[in-house]
Amino acid sequence: MEIRWLEDFIVLAQTRHFSRAADAQNVSQPTFSRRIKLLEEEMGTTLINRQTLPLSLTPAGDEFLQLCEQITERVRITRERLQDMAQQQASKISLGAPQSLVSHFLPEWLDQHQLREQVFPYLRATGWLAADYFHGLDRGECDLAMCYWPQARVDLGFELDSYQYLVVGEECFIPLCAPQADGSPLHPLPGTRRNPLPFISPHPRAVIATSLTAHLAQVPVQAHLVTMNENIQAANIKALVLQGYGIGWLPQRLAAAEMASGQLVRAGDERWDLPLHIRLYRPREPRHASVSELWSRLGKPPESGGLT
């Protein structure tokens, strides 16, 4: 049985005329009559008294009409609710970002732009590496990607002509380590060739790793580091650094509390600091109009490409 058969029956009960009911339903009269007949066969009884003029309903037809009206009304209400849900879902924007941005930058940024009800972090992306965010945009896993990005020109090894970006913030990655008893750094930069510093490193495919390598090459003094661990999550790097296992470059926002309490101290002065932009990326042709509307709300013209 189809819902349209119930709608046919309601219209026929209103018009009491097969031809006029067929016109109202935009079908031919033979098709309409056949659908009413199929409905009667499905219900196992005669619903229409065809011997009267105008047509009338049988007692079973009167009973069935009430059911038809209830069912079609519930279907109409449900259809409208589902359409509203689909529209609301389409207006929601998913954003992929590293865990440190999700926990220590994104909440304030969403509040600043009053986007809490529209933009939602895609938590499966918190462990992605640089290229993964753009693959996620291409696959439609997320609508936006928020990433750390080098301020200097650094070749990250992938093309970004298909995307647009806005610079939405800045972060400084600071070389930190656990303190000695007197408060001095346990692993002070630059280290020596004979005694290199244990290094808790970001993953080699991470933007931060590539940016840090380029930055250290510009510092006049050579840093002597030996990698003890490679990690995607800045929070995991911080946990190992807190235990005294080595030096790590950490986002200032992420390490602010531990620096204030003295649990972490600088391993070197400001020349070792790595300043990064925070970029918001979208596909050049976004899947949802809500993404374009958001871009306009942010109040800046989009910049193209991936390298500055």
UniProtKB/TrEMBL annotation:
Residues 1-58 form the HTH lysR-type domain. SUPFAM superfamilies: Periplasmic binding protein-like II, Winged helix' DNA-binding domain. It holds the Pfam family HTH_1. InterPro entries: LysR_HTH_N (IPR000847), LysR_subst-bd (IPR005119), WH-like_DNA-bd_sf (IPR036388), WH_DNA-bd_sf (IPR036390). It comes from the Bacteria. The keyword DNA-binding applies. Keywords: DNA-binding, Transcription, Transcription regulation. Belongs to the LysR transcriptional regulatory family. This is LysR family transcriptional regulator.
